[in-house]
């Protein structure tokens, strides 16, 4: 059995269980397109946190993950994977996006497994109990064929399970 499960549908539908919404981000403080734009409409306070993190750290964020409260849904935390310095047509190469995706997921794994980290995010239980969900990251604006990102996700088998939403 694989550590990936696919579900058809919009990832932004409300859920009745604790979950982390993982998405791929630029370090330039822009949630201006794709899934990030939809999140900016739904979670403006989270976007504000994301922009501040980018302003303070810029491209030093590459290969890192920022966990951000959603502020509006008790059972949701947002995970920003910093995989490209710029968004839009200025995004990085597929090789660098994949490399930073893997590193950022490793960083996320390490953060989730810090004892007592849950209190920092007002989480409702241990972050290791949160379901890890994502759209088909990197395959839209970043233009990376999904199968390549899928390979990186499969390499976390035994450490993390992911639910992938397909429109
Ligand atoms: N539910 C499920 N999947 C979605 C949804 C949704 N509501 N909205 C978009 N998708 C899918 C797209 O069809 C695509 O397959 O998510 C995938 C990723 O799309 P993008 O948002 O274009 O993201 P990505 O390719 O990872 O590029 C990241 O775009 O999201 C912005 O600011 C972000 O600069 C970053 C870049």
TrEMBL record:
<dbReference type="Pfam" id="PF01661">
    <property type="entry name" value="Macro"/>
</dbReference>
<dbReference type="InterPro" id="IPR002589">
    <property type="entry name" value="Macro_dom"/>
</dbReference>
<dbReference type="GO" id="GO:0140291">
    <property type="term" value="P:peptidyl-glutamate ADP-deribosylation"/>
</dbReference>
<dbReference type="InterPro" id="IPR050892">
    <property type="entry name" value="ADP-ribose_metab_enzymes"/>
</dbReference>
<dbReference type="InterPro" id="IPR043472">
    <property type="entry name" value="Macro_dom-like"/>
</dbReference>
<feature type="domain" description="Macro">
    <location>
        <begin position="1"/>
        <end position="167"/>
    </location>
</feature>
<comment type="similarity">
    <text>Belongs to the POA1 family.</text>
</comment>
<protein>
    <recommendedName>
        <fullName>ADP-ribose 1''-phosphate phosphatase</fullName>
        <ecNumber>3.1.3.84</ecNumber>
    </recommendedName>
</protein>
């Amino acid at each position: 059995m694989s550590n990936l499960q696919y579900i058809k549908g919009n990832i932004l539908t409300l859920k009745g269980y604790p979950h982390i919404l993982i998405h791929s981000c630029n370090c330039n403080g822009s949630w201006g397109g794709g899934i990030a734009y939809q999140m900016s409409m739904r979670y403006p306070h989270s976007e504000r946190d994301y922009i501040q993190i980018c302003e303070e750290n810029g491209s030093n964020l590459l290969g890192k993950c920022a966990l951000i409260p959603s502020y509006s849904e008790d059972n949701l935390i947002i995970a920003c994977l910093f995989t490209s310095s710029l968004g839009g047509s200025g995004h990085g190469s597929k090789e660098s996006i994949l490399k930073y995706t893997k590193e950022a997921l490793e960083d996320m794994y390490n953060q989730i497994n810090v004892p007592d980290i849950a209190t920092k995010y007002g989480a409702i239980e241990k972050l290791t109990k949160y379901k890890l969900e994502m759209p088909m990251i990197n395959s839209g604006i970043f233009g990376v064929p999904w199968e390549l990102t899928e390979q990186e996700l499969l390499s976390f088998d035994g450490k993390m399970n992911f639910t992938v939403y397909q429109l």
